Amino acid sequence: MLCIETSSTILNDHEFDWEGWSQWVQQIRRQAVRRRYRLYVFLLDVILFPLILPCYFLYAIFKFIRRISTTTTTLLKAKARTTTTTTTTATPMVRKIEETTQPVIGQEEVRSLEIVIGINIMELHLDSFMSDGYTSTISAHEWLSGIASAELHHLQVLTLRGCNLAGSVGTSMLNLSSLSHLDLSYNHITDFPQQMFHLPNLKVLDLSDNHHLTGSLPEFPPGTALQQLFLAYTNYTGRIPHSIGNLKQLTDLEVGNCGFFGPLPHSLGNLEQLAFLGLNGNNFEGEVPSSFSNFSSLEELDMSFNGFVGPLPSLKASRKTIAKIDLSNNQLNGTIPLSLFTLPSLQILVLSNNQIQGKMPDWLCNNLEYLDLSNNSLVGFEDPFSNHSSSSLEFLDLSSNHFEGSLPIFPNSLETLDLSSNHFEGSLPIFPSSLETLDLSSNHFEGSLPIFPSSLETLDLSSNNFEGSLPNFPKGMDNISLSKNKFTGAIPLTICNSSWSHIDLSHNQISGEIPSCLFNSIMDRYPFSVVDLSKNKLQGMIPDTFGSECWLEGLNLNGNQLEGSLPRSLVNCRGLRVLDLGNNQIDDTFPFWLEHLESLQVLMLQSNKFHGPIRRRHIANSSFESLHIISLSANSFTGHLPLQYFPSLYFKGMYEIDDHQTSHTAMPNVFYTFLMFPNKGQALEYKSIQIPELNAVDLSSNLFDGEIPTSIGDYKSLMSLNLSHNNLVGKIPSSLANLTQLESLDLSNNDLVGEIPSELTSLTFLSVLNVSRNHLIGMIPSGRQFDTFPSSSFEGNSRLCGIQLQIDCNPNKSGNVAPPSDHVNQSMVLISIGYL
Ligand SMILES: *[C@@H]1O[C@H](CO)[C@@H](O)[C@H](O)[C@H]1NC(C)=O
Ligand SMILES: *[C@@H]1O[C@H](CO)[C@@H](O)[C@H](O)[C@H]1NC(C)=O
Ligand SMILES: *[C@@H]1O[C@H](CO)[C@@H](O)[C@H](O)[C@H]1NC(C)=O
Ligand SMILES: *[C@@H]1O[C@H](CO)[C@@H](O)[C@H](O)[C@H]1NC(C)=O
Ligand SMILES: *[C@@H]1O[C@H](CO)[C@@H](O)[C@H](O)[C@H]1NC(C)=O
Ligand SMILES: *[C@@H]1O[C@H](CO)[C@@H](O)[C@H](O)[C@H]1NC(C)=O
Ligand SMILES: *[C@@H]1O[C@H](CO)[C@@H](O)[C@H](O)[C@H]1NC(C)=O
Ligand SMILES: *[C@@H]1O[C@H](CO)[C@@H](O)[C@H](O)[C@H]1NC(C)=O
Ligand SMILES: *[C@@H]1O[C@H](CO)[C@@H](O)[C@H](O)[C@H]1NC(C)=O
Ligand SMILES: *[C@@H]1O[C@H](CO)[C@@H](O)[C@H](O)[C@H]1NC(C)=O
Ligand SMILES: *[C@@H]1O[C@H](CO)[C@@H](O)[C@H](O)[C@H]1NC(C)=O
Ligand SMILES: *[C@@H]1O[C@H](CO)[C@@H](O)[C@H](O)[C@H]1NC(C)=O
């Protein structure tokens, strides 16, 4: 039921913008028509009722909730109260809007739309009436002037939150002199008149989440009524005016994630009523004004993600109200003032990513629940938590500091503890029994492991000096990383009964065989699992026990002593994205049977005993559909180059590379997959399932023969190609010049003949080229990247000449070539530029 009631007067048509209203009604109707489909779904439910009885109940509940929520969020809600001064004897008149009196199926709420506007209306709430996926916008100016022209002299509250209003607001609203609360948030307004801030009665102004709204704060003369000002997520910019100190009544100031800059005015601290201050995500700079210690009502302070410098502000200890302080991501320095930690009501304190020094004061006597001091320069504890029986701390993050020594006793209330990247040492204490997440990575802990609390879900002990045998894995554990320690012995069988989804035991000295129950247990796991056992001393065969519901996303067994053939049951792992079996002794032919793993992106089989030709009769477009990094290097594959079997490298520029600088940076993640990919002569380490946006083929060090096909020019998205150390013959195809993304090309140690095609100089990204040890002749092309390659890129070809080799191609005209020392210097400079 959509209804605005009124007390006395009804507007005449010419006084009110009926066009705007009926436009809205049209749109509501269109929405309603779309909703009709829901009715059909509903009818379908009824037909299927006997079949899916149990599901139906759940669905019906869902539908009911959905229905309630759509009714409340999408429909016009208008409340009207009569002003006390007006008599209520006049009969409310009702204006029906024709279009909507027609029944709309399944949408009885819309059927009886009755709108009456009266001049005594005091509150008009029109929130979200267009929000149900409706995308077209309506002119803010038109609508608001429609409302304003209705001469609603008593209108005090107008809310149009999430109404798809767009464009400029215009000045018409200035006529609504009684307005005390205006909410235009979550719209697409671009322009809001500054005079509105000065409406005599305006107390609450919410313009937040209008991303294109530009403007700046006006001066606030004394007597401005504003109490709450919300501008977050707008494009407001400029400084906070000093006159903001005149807003004595201000309780909420939220200007987060705008474009404000400059130092904060000292007067801000004089706002005694201020309870919520959100300045985060701007470009504020300078010190926090000392007047901030004047705040007497503050409940929440967010100054994160700015450029504040200098010492942390001290807030008066007597304040009983403040619950949350976030000063993270600034350049604040100095020590932590005790006054911050003794605020009795403080629950959340975030000081991460600053340059805070000194020791951490004792803080456990208060109500603090969440404390984040990560990425600072703290060195230790003032008082190692002698009495924490009354602590309510649940989250403690001290990572990336300079803490040293052994661990203190932590309060029992802790659920998350992150001490990673410090210099803690010694053996581990018993941890609080409620702990769910424990990250001790990158410290100097040693010894064997204690028994961990059974509540633990995430455990990261990587990059320490732990030794001894692996612990028993608690059943409920989800993420486990023990990588980069000195663990020895075999993998305990309890690993199969634990419900982990990510397990990383890489870079240890684990021996024995892989338990055959391990892969079988990766059934019914959600989310997809990652298993990393790389760089250990595992022996024997890879168990052929991947179950039919294998939820494996990444498997890394690189750098062990595994032998035998590839387990055929791997095809069950249909979600597999990374398979790294490099540096083992696997003895098999090329696994064409993996071609139907649609997600497989990285296949690393290098340095094994794979052998035989890579050949088959048909080439399917759908084989190895997603593959874009493949290494078959250092095996005994024979026959012609097999590039045509990996059509994904051909057809898709799988990655539209637009920024070469970022293409090799790994994203932060807890677990590693170690991909030894000798790209550009470097071993690159990529984290977990963070697959680099790189199209790379390494077929080096095999027994491939024949020519490099000219069709190589079709693999346009290749960025790295290594064909070195094979028996390739023929010329270097000039079509290689079409691989415009190529950064690294290694053709060395083959039997290639002819000249180096001068077209290759057009490869502007090429930073590594190696054609050494072939039978190439003629002049080395020069210009662009070719001037940056060192002589070792070309040596071992007895009949090549050019300045890169300091061999004159025209011995008769000696003197053309500049003195050698110059070339060396020049090349070195250019190389370093080429690598940037
Ligand atoms: C505002 O009110 C004045 C006089 O009351 C009137 O002349 C003007 O047209 C009004 N503005 C709008 C946009 O309604
Ligand atoms: C914000 O304003 C600046 C100019 O002041 C403009 O360049 C930028 O595009 C605006 N951003 C949005 C999201 O409108
Ligand atoms: C606020 O603090 C400053 C010093 O930081 C002091 O001079 C001023 O009197 C204080 N104002 C109020 C209202 O307490
Ligand atoms: C804090 O930083 C400011 C400049 O940002 C510097 O002048 C001051 O010396 C620093 N204080 C300490 C204790 O490092
Ligand atoms: C740590 O803080 C510094 C600034 O103090 C910042 O540059 C760096 O990115 C932060 N590191 C992390 C991991 O957040
Ligand atoms: C620890 O604190 C609790 C509550 O604040 C108190 O009852 C107890 O006596 C304190 N214990 C010590 C050893 O100070
Ligand atoms: C486990 O690790 C993965 C990847 O790092 C992450 O997506 C997931 O949220 C983690 N699970 C828990 C419970 O922390
Ligand atoms: C794993 O669980 C099964 C049944 O729940 C049990 O029979 C088996 O002994 C357990 N294995 C280990 C190593 O705990
Ligand atoms: C593979 O796909 C390409 C383009 O999508 C098409 O031109 C070609 O004919 C297809 N080849 C086969 C064997 O399906
Ligand atoms: C190509 O592979 C060979 C051996 O497999 C390796 O030594 C060389 O560094 C690789 N070249 C590049 C550019 O990565
Ligand atoms: C590069 O590709 C274009 C068509 O995409 C072709 O016309 C041209 O001949 C190729 N260049 C070389 C050097 O093969
Ligand atoms: C080219 O390869 C040869 C042998 O494979 C190697 O000695 C040389 O250092 C390589 N040059 C460059 C620039 O990578």
UniProtKB/TrEMBL annotation:
Gene Ontology CC entries for this record: plasma membrane
Keywords, ordered alphabetically: Cell membrane, Leucine-rich repeat, Membrane, Repeat, Transmembrane, Transmembrane helix
This protein's record includes keyword Signal: no
Subcellular localization, as worded in the UniProt entry: Cell membrane; Membrane
Bilayer topology term: Single-pass membrane protein
Database matches in InterPro entries: Leu-rich_rpt, Leu-rich_rpt_typical-subtyp, LRR_dom_sf, LRRC69/RLP
Signal peptide residues on this chain, from the entry's feature table: none
Transmembrane segments: 39-62
PANTHER family referenced in this protein's UniProt entry, alphabetically: LEUCINE-RICH REPEAT SERINE/THREONINE-PROTEIN KINASE 1, OS02G0609900 PROTEIN
Family that this chain belongs to: Belongs to the RLP family.
Protein name: Chaoptin
